Amino acid sequence: MAETVPLWSADYFVFLALLVFSRGMDFLSTWVATPHLVLEGNPIAKWLGWKWSALINPVICMFCAMLPIPTVVVVTTSLLVAARNFQGAWLMRTLGEHNYRHWMSAQLAIGSRRLLILCLLAQTTLIAIIGAGLVWFGGNLLVPAGVGLGLLVYAFAVLLYSLLSLARCSSRGG
Length: 174
What we know:
Blueprint: H1 10-33, H2 43-64, H3 68-95, H4 97-110, H5 113-138, H6 142-171
Helix pairs in contact: 1-2, 1-3, 3-4, 3-6, 5-6
């Protein structure tokens, strides 16, 4: 497949639809989990807030839709983030954003930081291994290579934002 697709072509609209859906699922899952962004792990998204994120994301989707590999990477990462958000959203909504954050902080205070970090590293490494395998064995094929890169980006994002959250929690004293 070409490195870019023509603007307004059939491929462009397919990629745009995939991007709009996946970014929409990321937005929806974030809203379900943390409507006031209290629990948002991405400091840039938290800083932008809903309004600016909603204005910037369509522009990103329209631009990325011309680029097949970035499209597949963003779609893969966004859908994995949405799935992770939906996994815990019920508890976040049940407890409330602030109560959930306090509850998690209390669990972190009594739990082993070493075990938490070890589990986080295991989780992200296992995901990254799948991604690296897809990139390596996918060769020049768009979907395997793009999904592999998306898995690598997702694993890195989970590791980075989880460690940032842990550091913020530590600096608040638990």
